Amino acid sequence: MSVPVEEGLFLVKYGEIALKKGNRGAFVRRLRQSIAAKMPDLQVRVTEVWHRLYVRFRLEDEARVRTALEKTYGIVAFCRAVAVDKDMVAVTAAAVALAEGLIREGRGMRFKAEVRRADKDFPIHSHEIACRIGEELLNRFPQLKVDVHDPQWTVRVEIREKAYVYGPETRGPSGLPSGSSGMGILLLSGGIDSPVAGYRMGMRGLALEAVYFHSPPFTTEKAREKVVLLSRILGPYITGFKLHVVPLTAALARIKERGKEEETTLLMRACMMRIATMIAQRRGGQCLVTGESLGQVASQTVESMRFTESFADLPVFRPLIGMNKEEIVEEARRLGTFETSNLPYADCCSLFSPPHPLIHPHFDSMRLSYEELEVEPILLECLGKMESLAI
Amino acid sequence: MIYLDWAASAPPEADILDAVRDVSLNRFANPSAAHGPGRGAEAVMSSCRARLAALLAASPREIVFTSGGTESNNLICLSLLARSPGGSPGARTRTVVLSGLEHPSVSEPARLLEEAGFRVVRVPPDHTGILEPQRMADALDESTVLVSVMHVSNEIGSVQPVEEIGRAVAAFSGRIGRRIPLHSDAVQSFGKLPLTPGAWGLDAVTVSAHKIGGPRGIGALWIREDSQFPPLLRGGGQETGRRPGTENLAGIVGLTAAAERKCGRMRGDLEIARALERRLISGILDIPLARIVPEGRVGAAEDAWSPYIVAAAFPPIPGEVLMSALDARGICVSTGSACSARHGRLPAALLAMGYPEKTARCMVRISLGARTTTEEIDAFLCAAREETAVLGRMAGKGRR
Questions:
Q1: How far is A188 from chain B (nearest CA, A)?
Q2: Same-domain pairing of A127 and A208
Q3: Per-residue pLDDT, B393
Q4: Does residue A342 share a domain with residue A257?
Q5: A148 and A297 belong to one structural domain
Q6: What CATH number is attached to the domain comprising A244?
Q7: Is A346 on the interface with B (CB under 8 A)?
Q8: What is the CATH number of the domain that holds A76?
Q9: Residues A295, A380: one domain?
C-alpha cells in the first residue's frame, strides 16, 4: 500500500463550487484554506486530484479532522477512504478492513459493492470487481448478506490514478467556503434566531464577526456567558470568527430618559444598528446580518425594519425573514444552539420591551425621536468600551 | 466581598476543613473493613453518629448519612416507589401531601411520584407564608402515605409549625389506625433554630453540612427508629441498608463538627441574627419602593421567622437586575433560591402565597450567617438604596 498505515484519508465532495466555471479554482483554494485553518496545529495535507479534494491526516487525529470537515462550508459530503495500488489483492484487503470496521460499529449486515472504473486501462471490468469483492466479504463474514436494493452500507471502489476504497458518507454543511462572499457583522443576541441567521449567511460564504450588546445590570453576566456559548457553537464554522461585546447601558439610560415609552425598543434597535455599522467600518465588514423574521415581534414589521435599517449604511441581510418560528427552532435544534438559546437569562430586549410598543411607526417622526435623543456621543462612548473575544 | 447568600451555601470554617483533610489522609480505610484501620474508621464514624444524634435528641441508630439535602429528600419521597401499595395492584390511590413551599428536591421527586400514579396534594401557605396546621390536617385522608413540610422556607424564611402539624398528623393517624409518616426538610433550620424531631412527632428530617459551615456533599437523615423508608439504591448494606455506598467519613466528620459548633452557639447566634434582621428589615423599609415579602412578616411574632433569611422586593426592578447591580459592587444576594435561579424559575413560595408573577419576579433574598456584621448590613442597605434609585428610573415607565 502506498499510504503509510499511520496516515488516514478523507475524500471530500464539494457541490456548488463545481459549477463555478472560471472561478472554480479560487473557490477551491478558499475551501482548502478554510479546511486547513480549522486545524492549524495538526499535520493535515489537502490536495486536489481530478476535481476532488483529498485530506490526509495522522490517524490519531481522525476524530478532530472529522469534526472540522463536518463544520466546513462548501463540503457536501466526505468519506473515509483508503488509497491502494491498482491490484485486486490490495483492493479486496482494503474492502475487508473497511467492512470489519462497519460490522464492529453495528451498522448492519446488508451491503453492496459499487465500483467505478475511471481508468479504462485497468483490465478487470467494474461488475467483475464488485463480484470479487462481494465474494471475498461473504467468505470472511458469513453473517453478511448482499442487498443491492436496500443495503445498510456500501463499499465504494474507484479505479483512477490509484484504487480508492470508500466507506459511508458523512454530510457536510454544503454552501460556499467561508469568506468567499466577503465579511459581515452579525447582531447576536442570546435568542434562538440570530445564531441561525449567522449559520445561514455563513453557509453562503460570508465570514462573520458578531456583536453582542450587553446592558449590565439589566442583563446578567449569565446572559453574556450564554452568548459566548452560542459563539462557540457557531464560531467553528466560520473562518476568523470573533465576538465583540459592547456595553449599551448608557444608551439605554438616555432612551429611558428622553424617549417615549412605546418607542423604546425601536430606538434601542436603531442604536444597535448604528454601532454595528461603526464596527463594520472598523473591521472591514461589508454588510450587517440580523435574525429578524417578518412580523415576529413589533420591531420586525416592515415599517419598523425600514426605520431601524435606515441607521445602517450597509446592506442588512435577514436570512430568516420569510421563515416561521417553528422552522427556525427546527434549524436551531439541528445546529445545536436551541438548548443554549433557550436558557432563561433575559437579554435586554425582553426587560426593556414596553407593554405597548409601536408596531407601525411613522418613519419621519421616529427619525425625529432619534435625533432628539442626541445619543451619538454616547454610542461612541459605548463603542470605546467594546471588548473583543476570539472564540 | 459582602456575602449575603448564606442560605445558598455558607462559607466553610477553615478548621473544620482542616479536620476533614486530616481524616481523608489518615482515616482512609473503608469503615466496613475488618482490619485495624477499617475498625478505626468505623469507630470515628460511630462517634460522629452518636454526637450528631445527641444534637437532635435522638438515638444513633436513627442517623443515616447521605450526600446532602437533595439526596435525603429524594430518599424519603422515592422510597414510596420501593414499597408495594398493598391490596390488589393499582386498586388503591396513594396520596402524598406537601406544603406549597417545598424546595425542588422535594417537589420534583413528588412530580415523579405523580407520573408513577400517586396523587400529590400541595397545601398552600396563608398570605403570611405560614401553613395552618388545620389546613394540612384537612388535606389528609385514608389514602395519604406521606406528608412533607419544610421547617424553614429557603426562599422567604418563614418557620412552619412542624410540631403542630406533627400533632395533627398523629391525631389523624390514630383515627385511621395507621401511622402516616411526616418528613421535614430542615436544611435551613438545622443548627440555627431548635429542632427536636422525635419530640415533635416527626418520622424523618433532612439536614445538610454546607449550609452551616461544613463541607459540600455530605448530609444526613434522621429517621425515627420504627419508621420504614426502603431505599431505591441497593448495594453493600451500609447505613443498615438504608443508604448503601462506602461512607464519606471525612464528610461525616465535617458535618458533625459543623453541627456541634452551630448547635452549641445557637442561642447566642440567634440573638445577634435577630438584631441584624431587625436592622435589615427596618433599613429596607426605609428605601423608597421597597417592601418586605410577605408584608405580614413586619410586626409578626419573631418565632415565626428565621432571622437568617429575609426576602424583599423593589418593584418594578426585577430581582435579577438588582442582584446583578449589587454583584458588580461586590455584594452577593440571590433571587429566590440558587437552585431556582439557575433555571429561571420564580420563587415557589411567593407564587404559592398568591403573589402575582410581577412581584415574584422582583424578589431578592438576603441571607445572613454567623459572621455577618452590622457593617455588611449597612453596606448592603446603602448600595440597595443607591442602585434602586438609579434602576427604578430605568426599569420603570418611560416618558409617555
A1: 21
A2: no
A3: 80
A4: yes
A5: no
A6: 3.40.50.620
A7: yes
A8: 3.30.2130.30
A9: yes
CA of B387 vs chain A CAs: smallest distance (Å): 10
pLDDT value for A349: 47
CATH code linked to domain B2-10+265-394:
3.90.1150.10
Residue of A nearest to B387 (CA): A217
Range from A268-272, A369-373, B393-397 carrying the lowest mean pLDDT:
B393-397
B19-34 burial by CB neighbour count: b if 16+ within 10 A, else e?
bbeebeeebebbbeee
Same domain (yes/no): A97, A232 = no
Largest CA distance in chain A: 84
Cβ pair B344:A219 closer than 8 A: no
Mean pLDDT of A34-46: 91
Count structural domains, chain A.
2
Amino acid at the residue A344: P
Q: Domain for residue A202, yes or no?
A: yes
For A334-354, the pLDDT digits (tens) are 999 999 998 876 555 455 678
Q: Flag whether pLDDT at B400 surpasses 80.
A: no
Please check whether residue A118 lies inside any domain of the structure: yes
Name the CA dihedral angle for B24, B27, B31, B34, rounded to a multiple of 10 degrees. Answer: 150
pLDDT of B88: 47
Q: What is the pLDDT of residue A15?
A: 78
Long-range contacts of B195-198 (CB under 8 A, 24+ apart): B195/B56, B195/B151, B196/B56, B196/B57, B197/B56, B197/B58, B197/B222, B197/B224, B198/B56, B198/B57, B198/B58, B198/B62, B198/B224
Asked if A345 reaches chain B (Cβ–Cβ under 8 Å), the answer is yes
Domain B14-263 has CATH 3.40.30.10: no
Mean model confidence pLDDT for chain B: 93
For an interface test with B, give the residue of A248, A249, A256 to mutate (most B CBs within 10 A).
Answer: A256
- pTM of this prediction? 0.83
Residues A153 and A209 in one domain: no
Give the pLDDT mean for B81-95.
Answer: 72
Unique residue bearing C-alpha cell 465583540: A244
Question: In Å, what is the CA distance from A175 to each residue of A38, A73, A160, A264, A363?
Answer: 17, 5, 27, 38, 37
In A, which residues are within 8 Å of B397 by CB distance? 261
Instruction: Tell me whether residues A220 and B320 touch, CB distance under 8 A.
Output: yes
Q: Do residue A299 and residue A195 come from a single domain?
A: yes
Residue A295: alpha-carbon gap to chain centroid:
26
Task: Tell whether A166 and A219 lie within a shared domain.
Answer: no
For residue A25, what pLDDT is reported?
A: 85
Q: Output the pLDDT for position A3.
A: 47
Domain that holds residue A102: 7-171
Is residue B77 part of the annotated active site? The answer reads: no
Q: What is the pLDDT of residues B214-259, one digit of tens each?
A: 999 999 999 999 998 999 899 999 999 999 999 999 999 999 999 9
